[in-house]
Amino acid sequence: TAPASSNYLHINTTIPTQVESGGTAISGDDYDGDTRNATTPDIGADEFAGIPADFSAPVISYTALSNTCATTNITLSGVIITDVSGVPLSGGNVPRIYYKKGVGGSWFSQPGANTGGTATNGTWSFTINNADMGGVAGNDIIYYYIIAQDIVTTPNVGSNPAAGLVATGVNSVTTHPTSPNSYTITPTLSGLYTVGSGGDFATLTAAVAAYNNSCLGGAVTFNLIDAAYSGSETFPISINVNANASAINTLTIKPAATAAITGSVSSGGLIRLNGADYITIDGSNSGGTDRSLTITNSATVAPTAVSIQSLGTGAGATNNTIKNLNISTGVATTKGFGISVGASTPGTGGADNDNTSIQNNNITVATVPVYAAGTASSSTGGLDNLLITGNTLNTTNTTLANIGLQLGYALNSSVQLNTITVSTSVSDEPVGISLETGFVSSEVSRNNITQVYTSATGGYGGRGITIGTGTTNSALIIANNMIAGVNGSNWNVFDNSSSMGIAIGALNSTNLTTTAGGISLYYNSVNMAGTYSSTTNCLTAALYIGTGASALNIRNNIFANSLNNTGTGTGSKAYAI
Q1: What is 37-55 written as a DSSP string?
Q2: Over the stretch 42-87, which tens digit does the pLDDT of each residue have?
Q3: Are 496 and 488 in contact (CB under 8 A)?
Q4: Residues near 506 by Cβ (< 8 Å), separated by ≥ 6?
Q5: Beta-carbon contacts of residue 157 (< 8 Å; ≥ 6 apart)
Q6: Sign of the torsion angle spanned by Cα atoms 310, 203, 328, 417
Q7: Is there a cis peptide before residue 161, judged by omega within 30 degrees of 0?
Q8: What angle do CA 38, 39, 45 make, to 5 degrees?
Q9: Where do runs of H (alpha helix) occur along 15-114?
Q10: Termini Cα distance of the chain
Q11: Of 386, 373, 381, 321, nearest to 347 (Cα)?
Q12: Which of 74, 85, 70 is nearest to 215 (CA)?
């Protein structure tokens, strides 16, 4: 520090120090104008040729192991170990992995193997030898950590995790880390499991939790052996994504005899397929078409019985089947659904819930027995290959307007052989089948709509099938449907209050236009018969087409309309088309 010294304000090069080569590379020279080392510069203003001192343990970094189904040895690769002095690349003091089975298990260790790099910055791999621990099985928890020492005279020792380690070398550990990393040997499900009192799982909640947290070694069936699943269950029951699910590794839930799942969940599904794939809920106990399983969400605020819900674009719940069930909800004060195929909020569109089948279910009470919609009229976002077939949908409500089937943003879909009865006393318009925006390249055929009726006074009407503004080239086929029992108090213009058997277009009292197009109507039978009483000269139609509809192919249908106004509106008109 003497100003007259030639080394004034310079580091003493004869004393080992961590300043030597301990800095981070920066641009520019030191204060003497000396060029900095490009990779390992010295700390401070002066770049010098000194003696490095290493008082720091090796730094160890890696991605922790995930839970695994494997019961074979596990290799942890890609471990990065850095140290100023370096670590041994061979011999008895190379970095090691320590591991044990369970909290009270004995610790074992194996040396690592250098797979690249240098002693100061190298890549390593480590193998956990299960034989050391007597083998592993499902639900075993394996604890482990990596340890390394450097090559200085008195080695510095470090580990990952590090907290609590006391060691003088990789082979001389006095105290192991207090919180080592861990992974679980995930159990594997395959085959038939009974669910209920005395079964493999006491509750459906427990069975589904096991599915959510297990590997799959084949098809799994949960056989419901109790008559009722309610108070002991924790609702909602959510079936989540299982990475092993496939066309082979399926899950089927079905009753052994007759069973009922009953609970109360507001604003969501009682049973939820939360992005899950290859799930079948089958109410038949014979492998046939009997409906021996009932699912009831008894809530009255936005109740939904079964919700098939997407986790986002490209992450929909796919290849799922809901069949042979009796489904109902409480009498909803806000809209609820028997089955909703969409997003996590029932009644909202969800992307890519593809290859969904809803068949031979009996759905009652629910405001909307079946809702299904994607987010775009394309394979990215839409519902591909939606099948709704053979269901009986019978719904009525005194506070909300009902819709038997509410569908949108689906492609290559088939809606067929469903029987639909809808009625309400609320001042609104019930609909049998509502085909909404983006329902394209699909077929609606051989459905039997027996009644769509509102008893509300003041001018309201039912609708058999409505086709929304949609897509101009929708490539939509409506064929061989039978529609009857469409009626209400009706009104004097073709707006939202007129009864219509089939209505093409978005209708309201001020704008009766539509962009719907590319629609084929073949071999449908619409019979609007009966009476209503109104003081207004009302208008009704078996087929209504809004202004702006295009590319319509209408042939070989039967349109009959003999609705009669028995009130004072003697100028009422009943149109076929």
Answers
A1: PSSSPPSSS------B---
A2: 888 888 887 777 788 999 999 999 999 999 999 999 999 999 889 9
A3: no
A4: 468, 469, 513, 514, 546
A5: 57, 147, 148, 149, 165, 167, 168, 169, 170
A6: positive
A7: yes
A8: 65
A9: none
A10: 106
A11: 373
A12: 70
Angle 346-351-354 from CA coordinates, rounded to 5°: 100
What does the block give as tokens for 361? 């279910």
Two structure tokens written together for 476: 């939509």
What are 82-126's pLDDT values in tens digits?
998 899 999 999 999 999 999 999 999 999 999 999 999 999 999
Query: What element of type H or E holds 211?
Result: helix 204-212
Whole-angstrom Cα distance, residue 37 to residue 39? 6
Which helix (DSSP H) or strand (DSSP E) does residue 307 occupy? strand 303-309
Beta strands in 360-508 (DSSP E): 362-364, 368-373, 383-384, 387-389, 392-397, 403-408, 410-411, 414-416, 419-424, 431-435, 443-445, 448-454, 463-467, 476-479, 482-484, 486-487, 500-504
16's tokens:
């080992």
Contact 124, 118 (CB under 8 A): no
Q: Phi, psi at residue 459, to the nearest 5°?
A: 100, 75
Query: Which tokens hold the place of 45?
Result: 């203003």
Nearest to 237 by CA among 216, 201, 265, 215: 265
